[in-house]
Amino acid sequence: MIGHLECNITPAISGDRATLVMWYKAAQTIPFYAFDARDIREGSHRSSNSSFDGRANFFPNRTPAMLEILHTKPTDSGIYRCRVDFHKSPTRHSRVQLTVIVPPEKLLIVDEKGSHIRHYILGPYNEGATINITCISTGGRPLPKVQWWYDNKVINNTSVVLSDKRVRNTLVLHRLERKHLKSVFTCQAANNNVTNPISASITLDMNRK
């Protein structure tokens, strides 16, 4: 994924221009990236931080100007500061927050005994039985929302955080009926609207009288 950090380099004084743009992360005093337009027509780009080496690129001709960070990772998250020096206008400082989202990694569906559901077929159960199915999501930053779906509708969206890496949602089905035979219940976990949610489904089996 690509991180986008905007910076206003438009001068306050008409006819002025930006001469130097420097990017800092958090409270660092040494810029990790600089764009110098003082002596070269198209400007020169310098990256001085090994953690961003080759991944940061500044685009001064966009509106607004923008720093792109390629292949973002969790450690890139944080507050960034953009300093812009002008030929005549006062120096401008601006801050921008970058949040790197890590999608959830995997799902595990277990029955009421906490056992993994083999071949994703649950049962068989008798009519009238009450059962519960638990879906556990692992990974993701921020933690995902875990939902149960049935017949293209959300039927349970109550997530419980177990730890800083695990979230669960338990679906309770009361008084099973014949119509539930071969029903498919799908668990989904998502923490953003950019990547597709991860999902896992189970099929409910019932005893035939």
Automatic annotation (TrEMBL):
Residues in Ig-like domain copies: 1-99, 104-203
SMART domains assigned to the protein according to its UniProt record, in alphabetical order: IG
SUPFAM superfamilies in the record: Immunoglobulin (SSF48726)
PROSITE patterns per UniProt: IG_LIKE
Name of the molecule in the record: Ig-like domain-containing protein
Pfam families linked: Ig_3, V-set
Taxonomic source organism: Anopheles albimanus (New world malaria mosquito)
InterPro entries named in the record: Ig-like_dom, Ig-like_dom_sf, Ig-like_fold, Ig_sub, Ig_V-set
